[in-house]
Design a protein that fits this description.
The N and C termini lie far apart (76 Å). This protein has two domains: 145 residues, Jelly Rolls, CATH 2.60.120; 120 residues. Strands 1, 2, 3, 4, 5, 6 and 7 form a seven-stranded antiparallel β-sheet that branches. The mean pLDDT is 77. It has nine helices and seven strands; from the N terminus they run E-H-H-E-E-E-E-E-H-E-H-H-H-H-H-H. Helix 6 packs across helix 9 and helix 7 crosses helix 9. The protein is elongated, with a radius of gyration of 34 Å. By secondary structure, it is an alpha+beta fold. A hairpin with a 5-residue loop joins strand 4 and strand 5.
Length: 292
C-alpha cells in the first residue's frame, strides 16, 4: 500500500542531481507527488528491458542492481542503501531499464512516477528550465573530462610529486641494494682492520674490533627504514598508476558512449534525410532523361 512521502526532507530530494537546482517551493511541490511503498526482501522492483516509468529513493533498506551475463550468471553492479536513488533518467527519456533491481533487505521507498513528473514540469516551465540547466552542467563537465588529457606517464607524474626527502631515500636505497655498497662495505672492513692492526702501533679499535661492529650495526639500522620508505613510495606509485588507468578507462567509456550516441543520431535523423534527398535527385534525373 502506498502513502504520501511527506516525511522526506528537502535535502534528501535535492541529493538527486536532477533536482539539485529546485528552490524550497518547487521541492515541496515535487515532494507531494512522491508516494511511499514498503517492499520485503526478495521483491523484484523491475527487470532489464522493462519500461522506465518511475524513480526510486531509498528511505530504508537495501537494493541490488544487477545484470545477467551470457552464461546466465548474475553480476552485481551496485548495492544501494538508505539515501541512495536510482532510475532518475527514466523520468526524462522513459526508455527501457538497463539492469535488474531487487530488494535484498526489507525497506521503504519513495517513488516518483514519470506521468507525475511530466505534469510537474508542464505546470512549472521555469523549474523545468532550471533542471535542464543542471543537466547541461553535467554534460559540460563530461565534455571537459573527454577533452582533458588523462593518459599521462605514471613515472613522470610520480617524479613531479617527489620531495627532497623522497629523492634522498631513493638514492640511498638504490645504493644500499647494489654491488657498489657491498664492495664499499668490504673495502671499509679491510681498511679498518689494516689501519688498526698494522699502520697504527696501537689502534683506536684493536681486535676484536668492537667499534667496527657498532658502525656496521648503525649503518644496517639506518638503512632498513630508508629502504622501507622507498618501498612505501613504490606502493604509492602503484596506486597512482591504478588511478591513471581508471581515468583512461573512464574517458574511453565516455568517448565510446558519445560515438554510439552520434551514430544513433546519424541513423535516426541524418540517414533518412540523405536517402530522401538522394531519391529526389534520382527522380529529377529520371524526369529530365524522359523529357530529353
Amino acid at each position: 500500500m502506498s502513502t504520501k512521502a511527506n516525511e522526506m526532507t528537502l535535502e534528501a530530494l535535492r541529493s538527486v542531481p536532477l533536482f539539485a537546482s529546485l528552490d524550497d517551493t518547487a521541492a515541496r511541490e515535487l515532494r507531494d507527488l512522491l508516494t511511499t511503498e514498503n517492499f520485503s526482501a526478495g521483491t523484484q522492483l523491475f527487470h532489464k528491458g522493462d519500461t522506465g516509468d518511475a524513480m526510486y529513493l531509498i528511505e530504508r533498506g537495501r537494493v541490488r542492481i544487477s545484470i545477467t551475463d551470457e552464461d546466465r550468471k548474475e553480476i552485481t553492479l551496485a548495492e544501494l542503501a538508505q539515501g541512495d536513488f536510482f532510475g532518475e533518467m527514466s523520468l526524462i527519456d522513459g526508455r527501457q531499464r538497463s539492469a535488474d533491481a531487487g530488494v535484498i533487505e526489507d525497506g521503504r521507498f519513495a517513488i516518483l512516477s514519470r506521468p507525475d513528473f511530466l505534469a510537474f514540469v508542464r505546470s512549472n516551465p521555469d523549474v523545468g528550465l532550471e533542471m535542464l540547466g543542471a543537466l547541461s552542467d553535467r554534460l559540460r563537465r563530461t565534455d571537459d573530462l573527454l577533452r582533458s588529457r588523462v593518459s599521462r606517464n605514471a613515472n613522470e607524474e610520480e617524479k613531479r610529486r617527489l620531495t627532497v626527502a623522497d629523492r634522498a631515500a631513493d638514492l640511498i636505497a638504490e645504493f644500499g641494494g647494489s654491488w657498489k655498497f657491498i664492495g664499499a662495505s668490504i673495502a671499509l672492513i679491510i681498511f679498518w682492520i689494516i689501519f688498526n692492526s698494522y699502520i697504527l702501533f696501537k689502534g683506536f679499535d684493536p681486535a676484536p674490533y668492537q667499534m667496527l661492529n657498532l658502525v656496521l650495526a648503525v649503518i644496517a639500522g639506518m638503512q632498513a627504514p630508508i629502504i622501507m620508505m622507498s618501498q612505501n613510495r613504490q606502493g604509492e606509485k602503484d596506486r597512482l598508476r591504478s588511478d591513471l588507468d581508471y581515468r583512461v578507462n573512464l574517458k574511453n567509456e565516455l568517448s565510446l558512449a558519445e560515438v554510439l550516441r552520434r551514430l544513433d543520431v546519424l541513423e535516426s535523423e541524418r540517414l533518412p534525410k540523405l536517402f530522401k534527398e538522394q531519391n529526389t535527385k534520382l527522380s529529377e534525373s529520371q524526369v529530365a532523361r524522359h523529357k530529353s
